[in-house]
Amino acid sequence: MISILLSPHILLAGKSPTVSTAMREEEILILQGKVSIYWLGVEPFLYIADPEFLRKMSSGVLDKSWGKPAVFREDRLPMFGIGLVMVEGEHWIHNRHVITPAFSPANLKAMTSQMVECTTKMLDRWDAFCTSHKPEIDVEHDIIRTAGEIIAKVSFGMKHGTSYENGQIVFEKLRAMQMTLFKSNRNVGVPFSEFFSPKKSLEARRIGKEIDQLLLSMINLQKESRTKSPEEDLLGVLLAGNDEDSHPGGKKLTSRELVDECKTFFFGGHETTALSLAWTLQLLVVHPEWQTQLRKEIKQVIGDGEIDSTKLAALKKMGWVWNEVLRLYSPAPNRQAREDIQVDDMVIPKGINMWIDVVGMNHDKELWGDDVFEFKPERFKDDLYGGCKHKMGFLPFGFGGRMCVGRNLSAMDYKVVLTLILSRFSLSLSKLPSFPCYYALS
User: Fold this and answer.
1) Nearest partner of 308 among 122, 146, 105, judged by Cα
2) Which residues lie closer than 8 Å to 435 by C-beta, 6 or more apart?
3) CA 56 → CA 156, 332, 357, distances in Å?
Protein backbone atom coordinates (compact mmCIF):
# COMPACT_ATOMS: atom_id res chain seq x y z
CA MET A 1 0.00 0.00 0.00
CA ILE A 2 1.47 3.33 -1.10
CA SER A 3 0.69 6.53 0.75
CA ILE A 4 -0.09 9.61 -1.29
CA LEU A 5 -0.26 13.18 -0.04
CA LEU A 6 -3.21 15.36 -0.95
CA SER A 7 -2.69 19.08 -1.30
CA PRO A 8 -4.68 20.98 1.33
CA HIS A 9 -7.91 22.09 -0.25
CA ILE A 10 -10.07 24.92 1.03
CA LEU A 11 -11.89 22.26 3.05
CA LEU A 12 -8.72 21.60 5.03
CA ALA A 13 -7.22 25.07 5.05
CA GLY A 14 -9.54 26.46 7.66
CA LYS A 15 -13.33 26.43 7.89
CA SER A 16 -15.22 24.24 5.44
CA PRO A 17 -16.81 26.33 2.67
CA THR A 18 -20.02 24.37 3.09
CA VAL A 19 -20.12 25.26 6.77
CA SER A 20 -19.41 28.90 5.95
CA THR A 21 -22.04 28.91 3.21
CA ALA A 22 -24.53 27.18 5.47
CA MET A 23 -23.87 29.76 8.19
CA ARG A 24 -24.76 32.51 5.71
CA GLU A 25 -27.84 30.52 4.69
CA GLU A 26 -28.81 30.32 8.36
CA GLU A 27 -28.60 34.10 8.67
CA ILE A 28 -30.80 34.48 5.57
CA LEU A 29 -33.34 32.05 7.03
CA ILE A 30 -33.50 34.02 10.28
CA LEU A 31 -34.03 37.28 8.40
CA GLN A 32 -36.34 36.11 5.62
CA GLY A 33 -37.68 32.68 6.53
CA LYS A 34 -37.59 29.43 4.55
CA VAL A 35 -39.83 30.71 1.76
CA SER A 36 -39.18 34.20 0.43
CA ILE A 37 -38.59 36.32 -2.68
CA TYR A 38 -35.24 37.68 -3.82
CA TRP A 39 -34.01 39.24 -7.04
CA LEU A 40 -31.21 38.57 -9.52
CA GLY A 41 -31.08 41.79 -11.50
CA VAL A 42 -34.60 42.20 -12.88
CA GLU A 43 -35.47 38.51 -12.37
CA PRO A 44 -37.55 37.58 -9.28
CA PHE A 45 -36.83 34.22 -7.63
CA LEU A 46 -38.90 32.32 -5.10
CA TYR A 47 -36.44 31.03 -2.50
CA ILE A 48 -37.47 27.66 -1.01
CA ALA A 49 -35.72 25.95 1.91
CA ASP A 50 -38.83 24.32 3.42
CA PRO A 51 -39.23 20.64 2.42
CA GLU A 52 -42.93 20.57 3.34
CA PHE A 53 -43.63 23.59 1.15
CA LEU A 54 -41.65 21.87 -1.61
CA ARG A 55 -43.74 18.70 -1.21
CA LYS A 56 -47.00 20.60 -1.48
CA MET A 57 -45.74 22.62 -4.42
CA SER A 58 -44.59 19.59 -6.43
CA SER A 59 -47.38 17.14 -5.55
CA GLY A 60 -49.88 18.43 -8.08
CA VAL A 61 -47.50 19.48 -10.85
CA LEU A 62 -46.76 17.24 -13.84
CA ASP A 63 -43.08 16.69 -14.56
CA LYS A 64 -43.43 18.30 -17.98
CA SER A 65 -44.81 21.42 -16.31
CA TRP A 66 -41.48 22.28 -14.70
CA GLY A 67 -39.18 24.53 -16.67
CA LYS A 68 -35.69 25.92 -16.33
CA PRO A 69 -35.40 29.65 -15.54
CA ALA A 70 -34.96 31.42 -18.87
CA VAL A 71 -32.11 33.45 -17.42
CA PHE A 72 -30.13 30.22 -16.81
CA ARG A 73 -31.12 28.64 -20.12
CA GLU A 74 -29.57 31.60 -21.92
CA ASP A 75 -26.58 31.67 -19.57
CA ARG A 76 -25.72 28.03 -20.27
CA LEU A 77 -26.91 27.71 -23.87
CA PRO A 78 -23.41 27.19 -25.38
CA MET A 79 -22.77 24.38 -22.88
CA PHE A 80 -26.05 22.42 -22.87
CA GLY A 81 -27.96 23.74 -25.88
CA ILE A 82 -31.47 22.27 -25.77
CA GLY A 83 -30.45 19.00 -24.13
CA LEU A 84 -32.50 17.15 -21.52
CA VAL A 85 -31.41 19.47 -18.70
CA MET A 86 -32.92 22.50 -20.45
CA VAL A 87 -35.93 21.34 -22.49
CA GLU A 88 -39.53 21.58 -21.27
CA GLY A 89 -43.05 20.28 -21.87
CA GLU A 90 -43.78 17.62 -24.51
CA HIS A 91 -40.27 18.10 -25.89
CA TRP A 92 -38.85 17.01 -22.52
CA ILE A 93 -41.16 13.95 -22.35
CA HIS A 94 -40.04 12.79 -25.79
CA ASN A 95 -36.31 13.28 -25.13
CA ARG A 96 -36.54 11.61 -21.74
CA HIS A 97 -38.29 8.61 -23.32
CA VAL A 98 -35.52 8.24 -25.92
CA ILE A 99 -32.61 8.78 -23.50
CA THR A 100 -33.67 6.76 -20.43
CA PRO A 101 -32.89 3.28 -21.94
CA ALA A 102 -29.25 4.34 -22.40
CA PHE A 103 -28.88 4.23 -18.60
CA SER A 104 -30.52 0.84 -18.03
CA PRO A 105 -28.72 -1.62 -15.69
CA ALA A 106 -27.80 -3.86 -18.64
CA ASN A 107 -26.13 -1.01 -20.53
CA LEU A 108 -24.34 0.29 -17.44
CA LYS A 109 -23.03 -3.19 -16.67
CA ALA A 110 -21.24 -3.24 -20.03
CA MET A 111 -19.47 0.04 -19.18
CA THR A 112 -17.80 -1.14 -15.96
CA SER A 113 -14.67 -2.44 -17.68
CA GLN A 114 -14.14 0.93 -19.39
CA MET A 115 -14.31 2.71 -16.03
CA VAL A 116 -11.78 0.25 -14.58
CA GLU A 117 -9.44 0.73 -17.54
CA CYS A 118 -9.38 4.53 -17.30
CA THR A 119 -8.98 4.54 -13.52
CA THR A 120 -6.18 1.97 -13.63
CA LYS A 121 -4.25 4.19 -16.05
CA MET A 122 -4.54 7.08 -13.59
CA LEU A 123 -3.39 4.95 -10.65
CA ASP A 124 -0.42 3.62 -12.64
CA ARG A 125 0.65 7.24 -13.13
CA TRP A 126 0.29 7.82 -9.40
CA ASP A 127 2.35 4.71 -8.71
CA ALA A 128 5.15 5.92 -10.98
CA PHE A 129 4.94 9.38 -9.44
CA CYS A 130 5.26 8.01 -5.90
CA THR A 131 8.17 5.71 -6.71
CA SER A 132 10.02 8.66 -8.24
CA HIS A 133 9.90 10.30 -4.77
CA LYS A 134 7.94 13.33 -5.92
CA PRO A 135 6.50 15.21 -2.92
CA GLU A 136 2.79 15.21 -3.78
CA ILE A 137 0.11 14.55 -6.39
CA ASP A 138 -2.50 17.03 -7.56
CA VAL A 139 -5.25 14.51 -6.97
CA GLU A 140 -8.16 16.80 -7.81
CA HIS A 141 -6.74 17.57 -11.26
CA ASP A 142 -6.27 13.87 -12.01
CA ILE A 143 -9.74 12.95 -10.75
CA ILE A 144 -11.38 15.54 -13.04
CA ARG A 145 -9.24 14.40 -15.98
CA THR A 146 -10.04 10.72 -15.41
CA ALA A 147 -13.75 11.41 -14.98
CA GLY A 148 -13.61 13.12 -18.38
CA GLU A 149 -11.77 10.16 -19.92
CA ILE A 150 -14.36 7.79 -18.51
CA ILE A 151 -17.33 9.69 -19.90
CA ALA A 152 -15.54 9.97 -23.28
CA LYS A 153 -14.93 6.22 -23.24
CA VAL A 154 -18.42 5.14 -22.21
CA SER A 155 -20.00 7.66 -24.58
CA PHE A 156 -17.99 7.01 -27.74
CA GLY A 157 -14.87 4.95 -27.22
CA MET A 158 -15.73 1.27 -27.02
CA LYS A 159 -15.58 0.65 -30.77
CA HIS A 160 -14.25 3.80 -32.38
CA GLY A 161 -10.76 4.92 -31.42
CA THR A 162 -11.06 8.16 -33.36
CA SER A 163 -14.34 8.98 -31.60
CA TYR A 164 -12.73 8.40 -28.21
CA GLU A 165 -9.84 10.73 -29.09
CA ASN A 166 -12.30 13.37 -30.31
CA GLY A 167 -14.30 12.79 -27.14
CA GLN A 168 -11.28 13.76 -25.06
CA ILE A 169 -10.91 16.94 -27.14
CA VAL A 170 -14.60 17.72 -26.57
CA PHE A 171 -14.13 17.27 -22.82
CA GLU A 172 -11.20 19.70 -22.74
CA LYS A 173 -13.16 22.24 -24.78
CA LEU A 174 -16.19 21.90 -22.48
CA ARG A 175 -13.95 22.61 -19.49
CA ALA A 176 -12.55 25.66 -21.28
CA MET A 177 -16.09 26.81 -22.09
CA GLN A 178 -17.12 26.34 -18.45
CA MET A 179 -14.43 28.72 -17.27
CA THR A 180 -15.15 31.18 -20.09
CA LEU A 181 -18.86 31.29 -19.30
CA PHE A 182 -18.15 31.77 -15.61
CA LYS A 183 -15.94 34.76 -16.33
CA SER A 184 -18.37 36.36 -18.78
CA ASN A 185 -21.85 35.66 -17.37
CA ARG A 186 -21.76 36.68 -13.73
CA ASN A 187 -24.34 39.46 -14.13
CA VAL A 188 -27.25 37.02 -14.19
CA GLY A 189 -30.58 38.80 -14.56
CA VAL A 190 -29.04 42.08 -15.69
CA PRO A 191 -30.38 43.14 -19.12
CA PHE A 192 -27.80 43.08 -21.96
CA SER A 193 -25.16 41.62 -19.61
CA GLU A 194 -23.74 39.59 -22.51
CA PHE A 195 -22.35 42.86 -23.85
CA PHE A 196 -20.40 43.53 -20.64
CA SER A 197 -17.77 40.93 -21.65
CA PRO A 198 -18.09 40.69 -25.44
CA LYS A 199 -14.74 38.91 -25.98
CA LYS A 200 -15.62 36.16 -23.49
CA SER A 201 -19.12 35.78 -24.91
CA LEU A 202 -17.73 35.45 -28.46
CA GLU A 203 -15.08 33.01 -27.25
CA ALA A 204 -17.75 30.81 -25.62
CA ARG A 205 -19.76 30.78 -28.85
CA ARG A 206 -16.64 29.91 -30.88
CA ILE A 207 -15.79 27.01 -28.57
CA GLY A 208 -19.42 25.90 -28.69
CA LYS A 209 -19.38 25.74 -32.50
CA GLU A 210 -16.14 23.70 -32.44
CA ILE A 211 -17.66 21.26 -29.95
CA ASP A 212 -20.81 20.95 -32.08
CA GLN A 213 -18.78 20.14 -35.19
CA LEU A 214 -16.73 17.48 -33.37
CA LEU A 215 -19.81 15.84 -31.87
CA LEU A 216 -21.65 15.88 -35.20
CA SER A 217 -18.71 14.14 -36.88
CA MET A 218 -18.71 11.46 -34.17
CA ILE A 219 -22.47 10.99 -34.49
CA ASN A 220 -22.14 10.56 -38.27
CA LEU A 221 -19.28 8.09 -37.80
CA GLN A 222 -21.40 6.03 -35.41
CA LYS A 223 -24.33 6.07 -37.83
CA GLU A 224 -22.18 4.88 -40.72
CA SER A 225 -20.47 2.08 -38.80
CA ARG A 226 -23.40 0.75 -36.78
CA THR A 227 -24.19 -2.97 -36.97
CA LYS A 228 -27.03 -5.13 -35.68
CA SER A 229 -24.93 -6.20 -32.67
CA PRO A 230 -25.88 -4.85 -29.23
CA GLU A 231 -24.70 -1.31 -28.60
CA GLU A 232 -22.19 -0.79 -25.80
CA ASP A 233 -21.73 2.97 -25.58
CA LEU A 234 -24.17 5.74 -24.73
CA LEU A 235 -24.24 7.27 -28.19
CA GLY A 236 -24.79 3.86 -29.81
CA VAL A 237 -27.68 3.11 -27.48
CA LEU A 238 -29.12 6.59 -28.10
CA LEU A 239 -28.92 6.12 -31.88
CA ALA A 240 -30.50 2.67 -31.63
CA GLY A 241 -33.38 4.11 -29.61
CA ASN A 242 -33.74 6.88 -32.17
CA ASP A 243 -34.21 4.51 -35.15
CA GLU A 244 -37.28 4.63 -37.32
CA ASP A 245 -38.15 1.13 -36.07
CA SER A 246 -38.18 2.42 -32.49
CA HIS A 247 -40.47 5.35 -33.34
CA PRO A 248 -42.86 4.19 -36.07
CA GLY A 249 -44.66 7.31 -37.17
CA GLY A 250 -43.20 9.22 -34.23
CA LYS A 251 -40.72 12.04 -33.82
CA LYS A 252 -37.01 11.28 -33.82
CA LEU A 253 -34.24 13.36 -32.28
CA THR A 254 -32.71 15.70 -34.84
CA SER A 255 -28.94 15.96 -35.34
CA ARG A 256 -29.05 19.23 -33.37
CA GLU A 257 -30.80 17.49 -30.47
CA LEU A 258 -28.37 14.55 -30.58
CA VAL A 259 -25.43 16.97 -30.35
CA ASP A 260 -26.98 18.74 -27.36
CA GLU A 261 -27.74 15.46 -25.57
CA CYS A 262 -24.12 14.42 -26.09
CA LYS A 263 -22.99 17.69 -24.47
CA THR A 264 -25.31 16.95 -21.57
CA PHE A 265 -23.81 13.43 -21.29
CA PHE A 266 -20.33 14.89 -21.20
CA PHE A 267 -20.76 17.68 -18.71
CA GLY A 268 -23.36 16.07 -16.47
CA GLY A 269 -21.63 12.71 -16.72
CA HIS A 270 -18.36 13.81 -15.23
CA GLU A 271 -19.26 16.80 -13.04
CA THR A 272 -21.08 15.12 -10.14
CA THR A 273 -18.68 12.18 -10.00
CA ALA A 274 -15.51 14.24 -10.16
CA LEU A 275 -16.61 16.70 -7.48
CA SER A 276 -17.95 13.92 -5.23
CA LEU A 277 -14.68 12.01 -5.47
CA ALA A 278 -12.56 15.10 -4.81
CA TRP A 279 -14.56 15.91 -1.65
CA THR A 280 -14.60 12.25 -0.61
CA LEU A 281 -10.82 11.97 -0.70
CA GLN A 282 -10.48 15.15 1.34
CA LEU A 283 -12.93 13.86 3.95
CA LEU A 284 -11.23 10.45 4.10
CA VAL A 285 -7.96 12.22 4.85
CA VAL A 286 -9.58 14.00 7.79
CA HIS A 287 -11.38 10.81 8.89
CA PRO A 288 -8.87 7.97 8.27
CA GLU A 289 -11.07 5.52 10.20
CA TRP A 290 -13.41 5.59 7.21
CA GLN A 291 -10.52 4.73 4.90
CA THR A 292 -10.04 1.62 7.04
CA GLN A 293 -13.74 0.73 7.06
CA LEU A 294 -14.07 1.08 3.29
CA ARG A 295 -10.96 -1.02 2.62
CA LYS A 296 -12.34 -3.79 4.81
CA GLU A 297 -15.63 -3.69 2.93
CA ILE A 298 -13.85 -3.75 -0.44
CA LYS A 299 -11.81 -6.77 0.68
CA GLN A 300 -14.93 -8.61 1.87
CA VAL A 301 -17.12 -7.85 -1.13
CA ILE A 302 -14.69 -7.74 -4.06
CA GLY A 303 -11.55 -9.37 -2.72
CA ASP A 304 -9.02 -10.03 -5.48
CA GLY A 305 -11.70 -10.62 -8.10
CA GLU A 306 -12.86 -8.42 -10.93
CA ILE A 307 -15.13 -5.46 -10.28
CA ASP A 308 -18.66 -5.89 -11.59
CA SER A 309 -21.96 -4.07 -11.11
CA THR A 310 -23.37 -6.69 -8.71
CA LYS A 311 -20.41 -6.40 -6.36
CA LEU A 312 -20.47 -2.61 -6.55
CA ALA A 313 -24.10 -2.60 -5.43
CA ALA A 314 -23.07 -4.57 -2.34
CA LEU A 315 -20.65 -1.84 -1.17
CA LYS A 316 -23.13 -0.45 1.33
CA LYS A 317 -20.74 1.63 3.46
CA MET A 318 -19.35 3.25 0.34
CA GLY A 319 -22.93 4.19 -0.52
CA TRP A 320 -23.30 5.83 2.91
CA VAL A 321 -20.11 7.84 2.32
CA TRP A 322 -21.32 8.99 -1.09
CA ASN A 323 -24.68 10.10 0.30
CA GLU A 324 -22.98 12.00 3.11
CA VAL A 325 -20.65 13.75 0.66
CA LEU A 326 -23.64 14.70 -1.51
CA ARG A 327 -25.38 16.03 1.61
CA LEU A 328 -22.43 18.14 2.73
CA TYR A 329 -21.46 19.40 -0.74
CA SER A 330 -24.68 19.38 -2.68
CA PRO A 331 -25.89 20.93 -5.93
CA ALA A 332 -28.86 23.32 -5.87
CA PRO A 333 -31.59 22.73 -8.49
CA ASN A 334 -33.66 25.55 -9.89
CA ARG A 335 -37.04 25.50 -11.59
CA GLN A 336 -39.52 27.74 -13.35
CA ALA A 337 -43.29 27.37 -13.09
CA ARG A 338 -44.87 26.80 -16.51
CA GLU A 339 -48.35 27.14 -14.99
CA ASP A 340 -49.91 28.68 -11.87
CA ILE A 341 -49.23 26.51 -8.79
CA GLN A 342 -51.47 26.58 -5.71
CA VAL A 343 -49.78 25.98 -2.34
CA ASP A 344 -52.27 26.37 0.53
CA ASP A 345 -53.49 29.98 0.21
CA MET A 346 -50.57 31.07 -1.98
CA VAL A 347 -50.49 31.08 -5.79
CA ILE A 348 -47.10 30.80 -7.48
CA PRO A 349 -47.70 32.52 -10.84
CA LYS A 350 -46.70 31.03 -14.16
CA GLY A 351 -43.19 32.09 -15.16
CA ILE A 352 -41.83 32.64 -11.65
CA ASN A 353 -38.27 31.38 -11.10
CA MET A 354 -37.54 29.14 -8.13
CA TRP A 355 -34.30 28.48 -6.26
CA ILE A 356 -34.56 25.30 -4.22
CA ASP A 357 -31.94 25.69 -1.51
CA VAL A 358 -30.74 22.13 -1.12
CA VAL A 359 -27.60 23.35 0.65
CA GLY A 360 -29.74 25.12 3.25
CA MET A 361 -31.99 22.08 3.78
CA ASN A 362 -29.00 19.75 4.03
CA HIS A 363 -27.56 21.92 6.81
CA ASP A 364 -30.78 22.60 8.69
CA LYS A 365 -30.48 21.53 12.34
CA GLU A 366 -34.25 21.23 12.56
CA LEU A 367 -34.13 18.49 9.91
CA TRP A 368 -30.83 16.75 10.73
CA GLY A 369 -30.01 17.51 14.36
CA ASP A 370 -27.10 19.24 16.05
CA ASP A 371 -24.49 17.12 14.21
CA VAL A 372 -25.61 18.51 10.84
CA PHE A 373 -22.15 19.92 10.00
CA GLU A 374 -20.30 16.71 10.90
CA PHE A 375 -19.16 14.00 8.48
CA LYS A 376 -21.13 10.97 9.72
CA PRO A 377 -21.83 8.47 6.91
CA GLU A 378 -23.39 6.08 9.45
CA ARG A 379 -26.46 8.32 9.51
CA PHE A 380 -27.43 6.53 6.25
CA LYS A 381 -26.98 3.02 7.67
CA ASP A 382 -30.65 2.19 8.20
CA ASP A 383 -32.28 5.13 6.47
CA LEU A 384 -32.23 6.09 2.80
CA TYR A 385 -32.75 9.72 3.89
CA GLY A 386 -30.00 9.70 6.54
CA GLY A 387 -32.34 10.36 9.44
CA CYS A 388 -33.66 13.57 7.89
CA LYS A 389 -37.03 14.38 9.44
CA HIS A 390 -38.60 15.04 6.04
CA LYS A 391 -38.17 12.97 2.87
CA MET A 392 -37.99 16.10 0.71
CA GLY A 393 -35.10 17.36 2.83
CA PHE A 394 -32.53 15.17 1.04
CA LEU A 395 -32.59 15.57 -2.76
CA PRO A 396 -29.11 14.77 -4.11
CA PHE A 397 -30.38 14.24 -7.67
CA GLY A 398 -33.48 16.41 -7.73
CA PHE A 399 -37.04 15.22 -7.29
CA GLY A 400 -39.99 13.80 -9.19
CA GLY A 401 -39.80 12.71 -12.80
CA ARG A 402 -37.07 15.26 -13.53
CA MET A 403 -34.67 13.46 -11.21
CA CYS A 404 -31.24 13.11 -12.84
CA VAL A 405 -31.44 10.36 -15.48
CA GLY A 406 -27.73 9.57 -15.12
CA ARG A 407 -27.65 9.06 -11.34
CA ASN A 408 -26.94 5.29 -11.61
CA LEU A 409 -24.07 5.91 -14.03
CA SER A 410 -22.62 8.43 -11.58
CA ALA A 411 -22.97 6.00 -8.66
CA MET A 412 -21.22 3.22 -10.55
CA ASP A 413 -18.43 5.52 -11.71
CA TYR A 414 -17.91 6.81 -8.15
CA LYS A 415 -17.69 3.32 -6.65
CA VAL A 416 -15.35 1.98 -9.35
CA VAL A 417 -12.87 4.84 -8.97
CA LEU A 418 -12.95 4.94 -5.16
CA THR A 419 -12.64 1.14 -4.90
CA LEU A 420 -9.52 1.08 -7.08
CA ILE A 421 -7.94 4.07 -5.30
CA LEU A 422 -8.40 2.62 -1.81
CA SER A 423 -7.22 -0.82 -2.97
CA ARG A 424 -3.84 0.59 -3.98
CA PHE A 425 -3.24 3.76 -1.97
CA SER A 426 -3.61 5.27 1.47
CA LEU A 427 -4.35 8.97 1.74
CA SER A 428 -2.78 11.64 3.92
CA LEU A 429 -2.66 15.44 3.95
CA SER A 430 0.27 17.24 2.41
CA LYS A 431 2.11 19.74 4.56
CA LEU A 432 3.00 21.88 1.55
CA PRO A 433 1.14 25.17 1.01
CA SER A 434 -2.38 24.86 -0.37
CA PHE A 435 -3.26 25.62 -3.96
CA PRO A 436 -5.64 28.53 -4.61
CA CYS A 437 -9.20 27.47 -5.17
CA TYR A 438 -11.46 28.64 -7.99
CA TYR A 439 -15.15 28.69 -8.68
CA ALA A 440 -16.76 27.59 -11.92
CA LEU A 441 -20.14 27.61 -13.58
CA SER A 442 -22.00 24.29 -13.36
Assistant:
1) 105
2) 7, 9, 138
3) 41, 19, 16
Separation of first and last alpha carbons in the chain: 35
Determine the Cα–Cα distance for residues 276 and 282; give it in Å rounded to an integer.
10
Say whether 404 counts as a known binding-site residue. yes
Task: Please write down the HEC assignment for all residues of 212-273.
Answer: HHHHHHHHHHHHHHCCCCCCCCHHHHHHHHCCCCCCCCCCCCCHHHHHHHHHHHHHHHHHHH
Residue 417: φ, ψ to 5°: -65, -45
CA angle 313-420-130, nearest 5°?
165
Residue-wise pLDDT tens digits, 73-94: 776 777 777 777 777 777 777 7
Judge whether 386 and 380 are in contact, CB under 8 Å.
yes
Helices first, then strands: H and E counts in the chain: 17, 9
* In contact, 417 and 278? CB cutoff 8 Å: no
pLDDT in tens, 90-116: 777 777 877 887 788 888 888 888 899
Q: Residue 294 belongs to what domain range? A: 2-32+76-328+361-389+411-429
Q: 186 — phi, psi (to 5°)? A: -90, 0
Report how many domains make up the chain. Answer: 1
CATH code, 154? 1.10.630.10
Dmax over CA atoms of the chain, in Å, equals: 68
